[in-house]
Amino acid sequence: MTDTPGGNELWTRDGAELAAGIRAKEFTAAEVAEAFLRRIDEVNPVVNALVDVRPDEILARAAELDRAVAAGGPLAALHGVPVATKINTAQRGYASSHGIPAWADAVAADDAACVAALRDAGATLLGRSNSPAFAVRWFTDNALHGRTLNPWSAGHTPGGSSGGAAAALASGMVPIAQGNDIGGSIRYPAYCCGAVGLRPTVGLVSAWEPAGDVEFDSPMSFQTMAVQGALAWTVGDLRTATRVMAGADLRDPVGVPAVPRFARSGPIRVTVVRDVGIAKPHPSVDAALDTAARLLSAAGHEVEEAAELPELVEAARLWSLLLFEELRTMLPEIEMFGDAGVKDSLASTFRVAAEIWGEQPTLAAYIRGYARRGTLITRLQQYLGADRILLTPVSAEPPLEQDADLAGDDRMREVVAAQWPLQAVPVLGFPAVAVPTGPAGGLPSGVQLIGGRFREELLLDAAAVIEAGTSRSRPVIAAAHG
């Protein structure tokens, strides 16, 4: 399952090539949509990455886009490019099911701001990507839509919670996918499936969603840590999708009033952070860091190793206090509507978190945690300055075995420790990108780049260097029969 698919079929091309070809009238948006629908028919029965794919609507949208090409007017950046949206994000006329059977008919009346931005940019919304129930596992399985497989290995997680998005990218069902991230839900699936994924600065991409039948008051951790963003197969497509989705939106309580644009000048300073004393990196993770550091150094960037960066340790540990104390208030709803997997996983995670913060953290501890968060942000922002980024693991382990979070508290303790690089970033609200460095042991491997607030372009420049020096392939997936 490691050979590059042959030929030059439309589904093998990235979004930039597709948009350029449609603009130049080399092929039509309808032909692109048909090619990707055929690909979905071939491999989605095996991978189960996309749900609620509606060919008639997709082809009608493609025909509309082709009429715009024929009219000769200006075309937006993603004109005719297939994009997947996630089942926990509002898309007009589709259920925001969160993978929960009781919410299967919770059809959105309008688009979330990030989905509207993709639609306005000319994207063909090709299907809904699968996620775990309530989007709170690093594994993608739920009682409504079932399990999503990693296209590289059925025995390993495709990541979560945007696991369907990453699996769809790796198997060629879409070149770009929308996702969201509060604890690694964009970056970890990208890592597990060999794609790229950017968690933007909090507020850069609007998190506004239309109110449903019951208005949801977003907890503080959701407002300060959760982001909407993109995953893609190439850094170039990731950059385009992020630029398209970024926008001023004061409906979002932390939305920026204007989108900042920063131009980079001179070389990037790169600090490698391998091990902060929480989980020793697996040899393949160390090798990925070596590869990325070598490529960045060869490109003229200053690379140094950090002996320690205690702010990252504190941020990773604060994640399990600030987020989980708010999740605790949602446990009755999770108990009522959640499946056995999410209930068992959360119960185990709470027991592991209690080893750090106690069985019932006090309100004072929670308040002090948020106060400490501000100090950590200031310290790290000063350290990073205008031109420094951090090079870290995405996870201290290779992609986890399926349902590792259900294998008991001892294994859960290891899982939580391994994911420290994913946990630290949301607490800080900083941007971070996961970029592959090539396969290791038959599975994808990669690294995380962390930057200061609104330094997405800096991170994408560095990610492009790593991508250019890395051999890329997609897994070969046997088509389903019968």
From TrEMBL:
Per its UniProt record, what Pfam families does this chain match? Answer: Amidase (PF01425)
Q: Where is the Amidase domain?
A: 31-460
Spell out the coiled coil positions from the record. none
> SUPFAM superfamilies given for it?
Amidase signature (AS) enzymes
Q: Which family does it belong to?
A: Belongs to the amidase family.
Provide the protein name: Amidase
Source organism: Streptodolium elevatio
Lineage of source species: Bacteria, Bacillati, Actinomycetota, Actinomycetes, Kitasatosporales
